[in-house]
UniProtKB/TrEMBL annotation, chain A:
TM segment ranges: 54-73, 93-126, 147-167, 179-197
Compartmental location: Cell inner membrane
UniProt keyword annotation of Methyltransferase present: no
Pfam families referenced in this protein's UniProt entry, alphabetically: PqiA
InterPro entries with a match to the protein in the record: PqiA-like, PqiA-PqiB_transport
A cellular component annotation (GO) from this entry: plasma membrane
Protein name: Paraquat-inducible protein A
Keyword terms: Cell inner membrane, Cell membrane, Membrane, Transmembrane, Transmembrane helix
Main localization category: membrane
Automatic annotation (TrEMBL), chain B:
The keyword Membrane belongs to this UniProt entry's keyword annotation: yes
InterPro entries registered for this protein in UniProt: Mce/MlaD, PqiA-PqiB_transport
Main location: membrane
Name of the protein described by the UniProt record: Paraquat-inducible protein B
Signal peptide, first to last residue: none
Species, as recorded: Litoreibacter meonggei
Pfam families: MlaD
Keyword line: Cell inner membrane, Cell membrane, Membrane, Transmembrane, Transmembrane helix
Localization terms from the record: Cell inner membrane
Keyword Membrane applies: yes
PANTHER family reported for this sequence: INTERMEMBRANE TRANSPORT PROTEIN PQIB, INTERMEMBRANE TRANSPORT PROTEIN PQIB-RELATED
Cellular component annotations (GO), alphabetically ordered: plasma membrane
Length: 216, 694
């Protein structure tokens, strides 16, 4: 990215011996324990954040399995009860010719969550292990993940709106399936996981990785 | 601040993982625990899988079709597949663990699907939700079983609809309809299950249930009958259609009644008969219940047509059974020739034999065997002269060869036959018919026709028609003869003869002349007195008439009319008196007598002492004269009055009743007055004539 191209010589706050409050962004000298302005604890690097990332990531992944196995939507009409999983519903839509909608569903409910899992996992791993991806790209990736995370809830919104609108007693009714709960949990936990990631560590890698050339 | 911090060497955590571990790991652990817990629980809660074999899998869907018990889902069909060799459909049902122990050997399963029958609609909810499997089992844990055979239909007896289970059996004429209701006073209290035919094919048998608590209505003497269909009768009260309910009209139904209250309790499995109608059911109470019939066989020497199935078998005129089959039989070994013989299968109802001890086919056979050894034989007889059907009669015969009835397993006992009664009957009938045939009806008719022809000719004869005229002419002649003067003169001549005879008699009594004369004079005096007395009322009459006449000129018409009425009434009364009526007659008679007497006296010439007589006569005549002196004046007055009255009434001659009456009254009065006038004039002219008779 051009940001990376513009300036590859980035000096971190730690390099300058300061530390920023993560809450109110006030900069303090390194070693300050608590923010003098907002009172939140200040650490230069939250090393336990990776553990949180992994733990929440794991929970999110665990929830994602039943979210795809159980039916997302239960459509009850006068004569029949139809229960569709996320993928099953999308496949059915493709069979009915609604490829566009099916693609939207597949992207929103399958591709993006899976991408998020992979992105978070990649970021968490790249902190520990050298990566060919530049720090700027990883930072970018992190921001995208954090930004896009909330939009994964669109499936849940659809289910919620549908089930609240279509309640015609015996004629037709749409109820959320069990998968919707798990899907929501999965999204929540991946968001939490993404938030738990301390993005400053991306740059530490650079320090270590590019420390030698820097020191050179 | 410008001091560059020493680079921090990041060491891999050597401390134990748990020491550095964040508390956040609790969350995935917790999630894992929950997931495992849920998994274990669902596995633990999973009941056993049972297999139910159905004839077909209509509507059973995997993972959808529920197993219900008392309408609560207690399982779901997990899988449906064909049984080996495709003989059925196996539904694998995952039971709820809660009920699985109760699903034991006695359980039954059937598919509930929408059903539209004459009794109504059932299983309607399954139209929308799909079929479900209904299970029924009791509340006790029995030996477990995992493979079941599904029922084709809803069973009668199921948990929650307990009742008295009975067996129903048709009698002849009774009907059983599958799955029909049993009603009692119009309320459905039970149900007939699937009917099937009994082993011998003689009955239809069906399981039935009477639900609790109605089962107490059934006792050993309860009779069931068929209420399906309708009866139509036309009687003096008009036409009548009778049926119990529309449902039973269409689909059949049974009802029952306990006619005799002394029945014992009924236990499950008891058998009842279904009668055709209430009447036969009621009648059956007083007959012994029909038991399994005793089947026997009769071989008749001649094959005679007319014996039909269901023909009665009678013993001493009492029906004890019926013919169940008729066939010809040729058996050279048994009978010695190859003639066709009539072989009749009969069912004898042991209950009709009046057996005292046990009513069973065996007892009946024993009884009949004994009777057959004593000479009981079967014969064909005419059941009805008109219809010409035959029946089988069991009759005692004299000197019959001993016959021992053979019986045993697989042998139908044979009743020996004897000479049929049928020929006699036909002979009689033929005789009657031929006699009727031989009657000289045609001759009779010919004679009658001839007679009628003759009569017709006679009547149409001209001479005969003339007869009435001749008779009429004859009668006219007779009338002429009768009306002829000669014939009518006969009484007159008779009278004359009688007069002469009287004269002769009078002459014979001549010796008593004097006394007769005195009597005659006395009579004349009396007559004169009578005239006197009669005339005494006349002046009053005259006065009244005068008054009337006076008033008539002045009084208004009404008064005149009323007074005239009273006047005429009075006049009528006076003239109507016997005395007045008798007056002329008396006078005439007296004068005649005197006349005759005097004539006789004159002719007789006996006038010696007549003077005294004449004196007295003269006195009498004087008295008469005296009394008649007033007469001319009286007559004049009467005439005047009458003239006046006549004039008045003539003016009032409107032809009404009163005036007519008055006129007639006045005419009568005037006649009377004229009579009196003439009498008076005669007396006046010649008073002596009264005495002399001239």
């Amino acid at each position: 990215m051009e940001v990376a191209g513009q300036n590859t010589n980035i000096i971190s706050a730690r390099d300058l011996g300061v530390v920023a409050c993560m809450r109110c962004t006030q900069v303090w000298p390194a070693g300050t324990q608590a923010c003098g302005r907002c009172g939140s604890a200040i650490v230069s690097r939250d090393h336990k954040s990776l553990q949180r990332v992994w733990a929440l990531w794991l929970v999110g992944l665990m929830c994602y399995v039943p979210a795809n196995m159980y039916p997302m939507l239960q459509t009850r009409t006068l004569l029949s009860v139809q229960e569709d999983t996320i993928v099953g519903g999308a496949v059915e839509l493709i069979h009915h010719g609604a490829v566009g909608i099916a693609l939207i569903i597949l992207i929103a409910s399958v591709v993006i969550p899976l991408g998020k899992f992979m992105a978070i996992a990649f970021l968490a791993i790249s902190v520990k292990r050298p990566s060919s991806v530049s720090n700027h790209h990883r930072q970018m990736l992190y921001e995208v993940v954090e930004y896009i995370g909330r939009w994964s809830m669109i499936d849940i919104f659809v289910v919620a709106i549908m089930s609240s609108l279509v309640q015609l007693n015996t004629l037709a009714a749409v109820n959320p399936g069990r998968a919707s709960l798990f899907f929501a949990l999965s999204v929540i936990f991946t968001m939490l996981s993404a938030q738990a990631f301390d993005s400053r560590m991306i740059w530490d890698v650079r320090t270590r990785q590019e420390g030698a050339p820097l020191d050179e | 601040m410008n001091e560059t911090p020493t680079p921090v060497t990041i060491e891999p955590a050597r401390a134990s993982f748990f020491a550095n571990a964040s508390f956040v790991w609790i969350i995935p652990l917790l999630a894992l625990a929950i997931a495992l817990g849920v998994a274990w629980q669902s596995y633990n809660d999973r009941g056993p899988l049972i297999e139910i074999v159905f004839e077909n899998g209509a509507g059973i869907a995997e993972r959808e079709t529920e197993l219900r018990f008392r309408d609560v889902a207690v399982g779901v069909v997990e899988k449906v597949k064909f049984a080996s060799n495709l003989s059925g459909v196996i539904a694998f049902v995952r039971l709820d663990k809660e009920v699985s122990p109760y699903v034991d050997v006695g359980s039954s399963f059937w598919v509930v699907r929408p059903e539209l029958s004459a009794q109504g609609v059932s299983g309607l909810e399954t139209v929308l939700s799909g079929v479900y499997i209904e299970g029924s089992w009791d509340g006790e844990i029995g030996p477990p079983q995992s493979e079941f055979k599904g029922l084709k239909d809803t069973p009668l007896y199921r948990y929650g609809r307990e009742g008295l289970e009975i067996t129903l059996r048709t009698t002849s004429g009774g009907n059983l309809t599958d799955d029909s209701p049993i009603t009692f006073r119009g309320i459905e209290v039970g149900r007939v299950g699937k009917a099937h035919i009994s082993q011998q094919g003689s009955f239809a048998v069906a399981e039935a249930i009477i639900y609790h608590p109605h089962s107490r209505l059934v006792s050993a003497t309860t009779r069931f009958w068929d209420t399906s269909g309708f009866t139509f009768s036309v009687g003096p009260g008009g036409a009548e259609i009778d049926f119990s309910s529309l449902a039973t009209l269409v689909s059949g139904g049974l009802t029952f009644e306990t006619f005799v209250s002394s029945g014992g309790r009924v236990s499950d499995g008891m058998s009842f008969e279904v009668f055709a109608d209430e009447e036969s059911a009621r009648d059956s109470v007083f007959n012994a219940s029909e038991a399994e019939p005793l089947q026997m066989r009769v071989v008749f020497e001649d094959s005679i047509s007319g014996l039909a199935v269901d023909a009665p078998v009678e013993l001493s005129g009492f029906p004890i059974g019926r013919v169940t089959g008729v066939s010809g039989v040729i058996d050279a070994d048994a009978f010695g020739d190859e003639r066709v013989r009539l072989n009749a299968l009969i069912d004898i109802q042991p209950a009709r034999l009046g057996l005292t001890d046990e009513v069973t086919p065996e007892a009946a056979l024993q009884f009949l065997s004994r009777r057959i050894e004593e000479g009981l034989r079967a014969r064909l007889a005419s059941a009805s002269l008109l219809a010409g059907g035959l029946k089988i009669e069991l009759v005692d015969t004299e000197n019959a060869p001993l016959y021992v009835v053979q019986s045993g397993e697989g042998i139908i006992p044979v009743i020996p036959s004897t000479a049929n009664d049928i020929s006699d009957v036909t002979a009689t009938v033929a005789g009657v018919v031929s006699r009727i045939n031989n009657l000289p009806i045609e001759e009779l008719l010919n004679s009658a026709i001839q007679f009628l022809n003759s009569a017709d000719a006679l009547i149409s004869n001209e001479d005969l028609r003339e007869t009435p005229k001749v008779v009429r002419a004859l009668l006219g002649d007779v009338r002429d003869i009768v009306g002829s003067d000669d014939v009518q003169a006969i009484p007159v001549k008779l009278n004359a003869t009688l007069g002469r005879f009287e004269t002769l008699l009078a002459q014979l009594e001549k010796d008593k002349f004097t006394t007769q004369l005195v009597a005659a004079v006395d009579a004349a005096a009396a007559a004169a007195n009578g005239v006197n007395a009669s005339v005494e009322g006349v002046p009053a009459l005259v006065k009244q008439l005068q008054a009337v006449a006076a008033k008539a000129e002045t009084l208004p018409l009404e008064d005149l009319t009323t007074q005239l009425t009273t006047l005429t009434a009075s006049a009528d009364a006076i003239l109507g008196t016997d005395a007045a009526k008798q007056l002329p007659a008396d006078l005439g008679a007296a004068l005649n007598e005197i006349n005759a007497t005097l004539r006789e006296l004159r002719e007789g010439g006996a006038v010696t002492n007549i003077n005294a007589t004449l004196d007295s006569a003269r006195k009498a005549a004087d008295a008469v004269a005296t009394s008649t002196q007033d007469l001319p004046a009286l007559v004049e007055r009467v005439r005047l009055v009458l003239n006046q009255a006549n004039q008045t009434i003539a003016g009032y001659n409107k032809g009404d009743v009163l005036s007519r009456d008055a006129q007639s009254a006045l005419r009568d009065i005037s006649k009377a007055a004229e009579a009196m006038t003439s009498l008076a004039r005669m007396l006046e002219r010649n008073p002596g004539s009264l005495i002399r008779g001239r």
